[in-house]
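Posted in: Structural Biology > Protein-Ligand Complexes

Title: Requesting predicted complex, 2-acetamido-2-deoxy-beta-D-glucopyranose in pocket

I'd be grateful if someone could produce the 3D structure tokens for the following input. Sequence and ligand are given below.
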Amino acid sequence: MSPTNSFRAWLVHILLVFSTALLADADDQVPLGMASGTAPRRVAIVGAGAGGSSAAYYLRQYADYFRIPVNLTVFERNPYVGGRSTTVNVFDNASYPVELGASIFVEVNYNLMDAAKKFGLNLTGAGQSRPNEAEEMIGIWDGERFVYTQSESLSWWNIAKLLWRYGLAPIRTRNLMKDTVNRFVKLYQRPYFPFSSLSSVAVELGLNKATAATGAEFLEANGISAAFSREIIQASTRVNYGQNLALIHGLETMVCMATDGAVFVENGNWQIFAGMLNSSQANVNLNTAVTSIKRNSNGTFTVSHVHDNHSPEQSLFDDVVIAGPFQESGIAISPPLDHVPDTIPYVTLHVTLFSSPHRLSPRFFNLEDTEVPETVLTTLPQGLDLGPREDGVGPSGFWSISTLAKVQPPAEHEASDTPQEHYVYKIFSPERPTAEFLASVLGVDAPQGAGNLTIGDLPKQDISWFYEKTWHSYPYLYPRQTFEQISLASNLWYTSGIESFISTMETSSLMGMNVAGLMIENWLGRHVEWNRWTKTDSTEL
Ligand SMILES: Cc1cc2nc3c(=O)[nH]c(=O)nc-3n(C[C@H](O)[C@H](O)[C@H](O)COP(=O)(O)OP(=O)(O)OC[C@H]3O[C@@H](n4cnc5c(N)ncnc54)[C@H](O)[C@@H]3O)c2cc1C
Ligand SMILES: *[C@@H]1O[C@H](CO)[C@@H](O)[C@H](O)[C@H]1NC(C)=O
Ligand SMILES: *[C@@H]1O[C@H](CO)[C@@H](O)[C@H](O)[C@H]1NC(C)=O
Ligand SMILES: *[C@@H]1O[C@H](CO)[C@@H](O)[C@H](O)[C@H]1NC(C)=O
Ligand SMILES: *[C@@H]1O[C@H](CO)[C@@H](O)[C@H](O)[C@H]1NC(C)=O
Ligand SMILES: *[C@@H]1O[C@H](CO)[C@@H](O)[C@H](O)[C@H]1NC(C)=O
Ligand SMILES: *[C@@H]1O[C@H](CO)[C@@H](O)[C@H](O)[C@H]1NC(C)=O
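-- Reply #1 --
Done. Output follows.
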């Protein structure tokens, strides 16, 4: 062989090793897969959020590798891809998109990180688009006073002030978080992947201890002080999940503290899921709701779907993935399932986005002259224990107020000669904010009868743009040890049970990938020695 040829052979070899090592072990013979000429497996995926897009994306990769012909169809009742990951534009200007739902993910979120890289999306560090004008970046407000403020916004760790104030608690918390994350990331690897029961794999990984206890119990059992838990950790469970430590379980509490490498995709995280769907070559049907799934006696499914206001259509599939909370899907399944996923309580979260020329009012926050931190998180005041109450917001009345960015308003909003940038704010609250509340947060006069008025009743000179959205954002994460079935019936799969374990874009993606793995094993009728394809070498934080 000439040197060039041997180099080429080597290159081909390396490329093959690279492409196949991602999926299977050397002992998994290059598969023959299905006989050529077999009709493609018809797969319906209901939902184009993180879970459904990931199911399609990984299923396409695995099926191609195993040479199984598949025809993927995604049904999404919204007019857009992304589900709870979606943006809206300030001033309706596409130059200023802001996240209305899921806003950040972190470096151990392998699926999201890998996909963003693969699709050439730009990542920005969380908080980097903030105005950065105030001395303090983060403040934790208890409804009366700031119990803690910090000038750096990106990390809770390595901050002298934190260690000075809370002693060993931050270090203990970080170690506990690292231990928890290192267990969690094993879900991406054999022998755990793909898992047919989340309840079992949680026990195998020792994560059931964290899910069985409330955050408060879990932290106390691990020697973390009540002051640090209430002032810092609870501020984080409240901004991320709208719940206190006496309710939310220990595992989700740890997720709230796993903030290393927090980023977002420039112009919208939903682009990851759009990229996944494009790459999956699925037929994507937007504005199309699945209304019923009939399990036929020959094992196929007749899926009824309605596009806009047209009359229902029916299509036949071999497999169906339900990739959104079942209780909100409106899908009737016949004959009935042996076990229907339980209805679980979801947080009702009001997200209020708006722009204003005004800064946050020091007076509202009982400050004299100092500026208000750009991100205001909240906690309960010392001595107030609301236990596991769902209406646990306490005296602050809101979960968080963040200053997201500064933007140039369109000409009609500018005060005559001096063009002034406006601030963009995001409020998370359990109730719709009143005009009175908003006016006092901005330090402007409230209009008459403001107790009953809302944001649209405030003058344009104070609120130049706004957008309100009520989400069922995530479950109340009560302590539990069992999680919904992943296989609801033969060839009928469900991704959203993972939300009671951890509710994030990445975990929905993981479950989409997991279901894809289970489907492949099911079709092949054997276990596959999946190799790890995520960068698990870097999991030691
Ligand atoms: C305000 C907010 C902030 C958040 N912050 C973060 C964050 O910072 N980081 C993070 O990782 N996570 C965050 N989350 C959580 C995250 O958004 C979700 O965990 C994740 O996006 C869920 O993805 P999913 O695909 O499982 O569900 P969804 O995104 O809800 O997708 C399900 C899809 O199914 C569709 N669907 C349902 N039924 C039908 C039907 N019958 N027919 C057709 N289509 C149907 C729905 O329209 C929806 O698009 C946040 C959520 C909210 C609301
Ligand atoms: C895939 O299925 C859709 C309808 O479910 C059908 O219109 C399309 O022709 C199929 N594509 C292939 C390649 O079989
Ligand atoms: C959108 O914002 C950009 C950046 O400030 C600006 O250049 C552009 O004119 C705006 N577009 C509209 C339609 O206002
Ligand atoms: C990423 O950022 C670069 C530099 O700002 C830009 O040229 C490029 O278009 C961006 N890519 C995407 C996908 O937004
Ligand atoms: C969609 O996927 C194809 C490959 O399947 C790729 O060539 C193309 O660039 C992708 N388009 C976008 C917009 O990502
Ligand atoms: C399975 O049953 C469905 C519904 O009765 C029918 O439309 C379909 O043709 C059947 N498929 C096979 C392979 O028998
Ligand atoms: C608010 O509106 C209700 C009816 O919509 C009315 O009965 C009530 O008096 C109003 N309260 C105030 C403070 O204006």
